[in-house]
Design brief:
CATH topology: Deoxyuridine 5'-Triphosphate Nucleotidohydrolase, Chain A
Largest sheet: 4 strands, antiparallel
Strand order of the largest sheet: 1-4-8-6
Shape: globular
Number of domains: 1
Helix content: under 10%
CATH class: Mainly Beta
Number of strands: 10
């Protein structure tokens, strides 16, 4: 099994809210799990038709050639209609060094019934995947900002 990444907490100042002491690094529930569960550091409720941004307090150092894809936990989507605002979050390997310390934030939307999460509950999952680039790729730009900093 390839060991290609490591999770860390962001600094307390980057987290910028109550609950820093409750941040738990993502972990797999079983040895056969592909996804690393993201744990809520504070209580929240996503109401029907609402959206909410969750500050996870987590950053990930990822080897080149790999990406962390953030997805809803299957039970959340199936039972409550919860999904990510961007369908799947893509955490690039160079995001770790972004100006915001690579703080992973997860925006949830679209509950079909109220979805309540307590601090310490898993609410999303991340899966590491390899990726390739084209033969003629000549990109040399470096990341500085956080969300949307590369023109998206």
């Amino acid at each position: 099994m390839n060991r290609i990444a490591q999770f860390f907490k962001v600094s307390e100042s980057q987290f910028g809210r109550d609950g820093y002491e409750n941040i738990i690094l993502p972990r797999r529930a079983t040895a056969g799990s592909a996804g690393y569960d993201f744990i809520a550091p504070y209580d929240f409720t996503l109401g029907v038709g609402e959206e909410i941004i969750i500050d996870t307090g987590i950053r990930a150092r990822i080897d080149d050639g790999w990406v962390l894809v953030i997805l809803p936990r299957s039970g959340s989507g199936f039972k409550y209609g919860v999904r990510l605002a961007n369908t799947a979050g893509v955490i690039d390997s160079d995001y770790f060094n972004a100006d915001n310390e690579g703080h992973i934030k997860i925006k949830l939307v679209g509950a079909t019934k109220p979805f309540s999460v307590k601090a310490g509950d898993a609410f999303a999952q991340g899966i590491f995947l390899p990726y390739g680039i084209t033969i003629d790729d000549d990109c040399v730009e470096e990341r500085h900002g956080g969300f949307g900093s590369t023109g998206g």
